[in-house]
Design a protein that fits this description.
With 612 residues, the chain is an alpha+beta fold. 28% of the residues lie in helices and 25% in strands. Strand 20 (445-451), helix 13 and strand 21 (473-479) form a beta-alpha-beta unit.
């Protein structure tokens, strides 16, 4: 036997037993063999010696129970140490990334009717679904700026009236057909065709389009308008599906409910009840989508007739998410497994003065009413999630806002002849220059019309309280929103109208402040027809850079504020309640409600490890 080296003698005895003890030899094996000469020969075979690593099986025969526990414990510690060390070495080279998978169910108010970009503005649910199923030449980012989507590149002519666009060649519709110039030309010709009866026909009346080649198109404008890129976010229809459909029959086509688009999700399935009422509609993400594939594999929308039922479904765990919840309601709906995302829109709560009303036609009286508003009190009313504004542009702050001051407002009213007689609480008109004996008995009466919305009714009550402190008798009339707006644009018989105004992605104010929108059921709810405002709005449409756009917006805002045709009060914010299991969530500024779904493209439910 080979003697052990000195350093081995210092090892614990149980180590020496394991690695230097030899298993007993087995008995010799005698194997008889017969040779060709019929002689009998017996061979002796020595038993094979076990390899040392297999001798571990003999531990129970060699070691005592205590030595066995020490051995196995040491071996476990050694293994854990190796494992931890290995993880420390590879951890810096690994990263956690989102992976595709999971389903997110969302409650929405309403139901789809025509899932078609040309008709989507008529229905919020149609907007939501077309935002996922269709894609356009451009899209609006979180800075409310346009950026290429189906467009690979674009180029403006020197005079700003011609726009050349080259399409990306890897975009395909959900049925596998490529997106080509023919599809783009067909879509923009259809939206301008009166027979299709699209509500967007007037938006694109200033555009004409021509095909340059298979993947290039050219737009012609009546006049330069860099902001037209915002209008080119219209979803593209496949000509091989819609080309044979007559315009007058388009709203009846089956493709409106089983749409084929080129967006990040494709239509998957839907469910109806026994009465034919649509209950759910699901979409699934597209593996070969040309852009960044969404990480949430399935989006399912549950439809409810009103917000009360949608909120009840969220509380009852029937759905995972609900968008555009007023913050006053969000706190009551929040539960342990939900998180809140803030969604900001280019939207304002505005109190419009009817400048053609006999009482409100005087700009100085409107200024007095504006001076009575205490903005601190308004902020306390609306809470921390809404933002005070002082401009017709929701995201533009001005230095011309009037600070509230009751005493100044009262003095201004008095100078206009609105006096408060002793023992009375309501001012009467006593025009300057007339004797008090001949003073008019006209009282300062103001009526406020407001839609049936809790937040707007609260604003109306605040205005009533503040104007009552001036000596006005104020009445608040609450009406159904649709009926109120219809009456407002046709009869224009209100004094003050409170409304939430959502601007288009371009933040174009023409629809609300241009003189040509005063009549013909336009949305100029103040009835303001002013040359300076019209000139400023015209300049806004021909700006060619971001810097000039900002300067022109300031000019437009000042022209409007100088006339005090309205009170610009606040920019509301809404909560998007979603599960905490959804990651990658951030607050967002969006151009329209359906954009929330595109912003959620970076959200994910599942994740995994990836080597850096």
């Amino acid at each position: 036997m080979t003697p052990m080296r000195p350093w081995l003698l210092r090892l614990p005895s149980w180590w020496r037993k394991i690695f230097f003890w030899q298993a007993p030899r087995g008995s010799q094996e005698f194997k008889p063999e017969t040779h060709h000469d019929h002689a009998l020969v017996v061979s002796v075979t020595e038993p094979k010696r076990l390899p040392r690593w297999r001798q571990v099986r003999s531990i129970p025969r060699v070691l005592t129970p205590l030595e066995q526990r020490v051995f196995w414990g040491s071996l476990a510690i050694f293994g854990i140490t190796v494992l931890v060390g290995t993880m420390d070495l590879i951890r810096p080279h690994l990263m956690r990334v989102a992976t595709v998978g999971g389903t997110l169910t969302e409650a929405v108010v309403g139901a789809p009717k025509l899932i078609n970009p040309l008709y989507a503005p008529l229905n919020d649910v149609d907007r939501d679904l077309t935002a996922l199923i269709f894609s356009g030449l451009f899209q609006v980012n979180d800075r409310l700026e346009s950026e290429p989507d189906l467009a690979e590149s674009y180029h403006w002519s020197a005079d700003g009236k011609t726009l050349d666009i080259v399409l990306r060649k890897d975009a395909r519709f959900h049925d596998g057909e490529p997106v080509t110039a023919d599809d783009v030309v067909f879509t923009y010709q259809a939206v301008r065709d009166p027979s299709w009866r699209s509500p967007l026909v007037n938006t694109y009346r200033h555009l004409t389009i021509e095909r340059v080649d298979d993947f290039s198109v050219r737009f012609h404008l009546d006049q330069p308008n860099p902001q037209v890129l915002m209008d080119l976010t219209l979803g593209i229809l496949p000509v091989h599906i819609w080309g044979d459909v007559a315009g007058q029959n388009a709203p009846l086509a089956e493709a409106n409910f089983k749409p084929i688009g080129s967006g990040p999700y494709r239509a998957d399935s839907f469910k109806r009840d026994s009465k034919g009422v649509l209950l759910t509609y699901s979409v699934i993400n597209v593996p070969n989508y040309y852009g960044t594939r969404p990480s949430i594999a399935n989006r399912v929308f549950h439809f409810y007739p009103d917000r009360v039922q949608a909120q009840a479904a969220l509380q009852g765990n029937q759905v995972d998410a609900l968008a555009f919840v007023p913050w006053n309601d969000a706190d009551g709906l929040a539960r342990g497994n939900l998180q809140s995302v803030t969604m900001e829109l280019p939207q304002e709560t505005i109190a419009f003065f009817n400048v053609k009303d006999p009482t409100l036609k005087d700009t100085r009286l409107r200024q007095a009413l504006a001076l009575a508003i205490n903005r601190k009190e308004l902020q306390e009313l609306i809470g921390p999630h809404a933002t005070m504004v002082d401009s017709p542009f929701p995201f533009l702050a001005t230095s011309t806002a009037t600070e509230g001051n009751l005493e100044t407002a009262r003095s201004l009213l008095a100078s206009l002849g609105w006096t408060l007689k002793p023992g009375t609480t309501v001012r009467t008109l006593a025009p300057v220059g007339r004797s008090s004996s001949k003073a008019s008995s006209t009282e300062l009466l103001i009526s406020i019309d407001v839609p049936q919305q809790t937040d707007l009714i609260s604003v109306a009550e605040l205005l009533k309280r503040r104007w009552s402190l001036l000596g006005a008798k104020v009445h608040v009339h609450v009406s159904d929103a649709e009926n109120l707006l219809q009456r407002a644009v046709t009869k224009r018989d209100y004094q003050v109208l409170i409304w939430n105004v959502l601007l288009p992605p371009t933040q174009d104010l023409s629809a609300f402040w241009s003189s040509d929108q005063v009549s013909n059921q336009g949305l100029n709810l103040s009835n303001l027809a002013d040359h300076d405002v019209d000139a400023a709005l015209a300049t806004l449409k021909i700006t060619t850079s971001t810097e000039s756009l900002e300067r022109t917006r300031v000019r437009v805002a000042k022209a409007i504020l100088d006339k005090t045709p309205a009170l610009f009060l606040l920019r509301p914010a809404y909560a998007y309640l979603i599960p905490k299991t959804v990651r990658g969530v951030t607050d967002a500024r969006i151009s329209k409600p359906s954009d929330r779904l595109l912003r959620s493209g970076s959200w994910y439910l599942k994740n995994g490890w990836r080597w850096k």
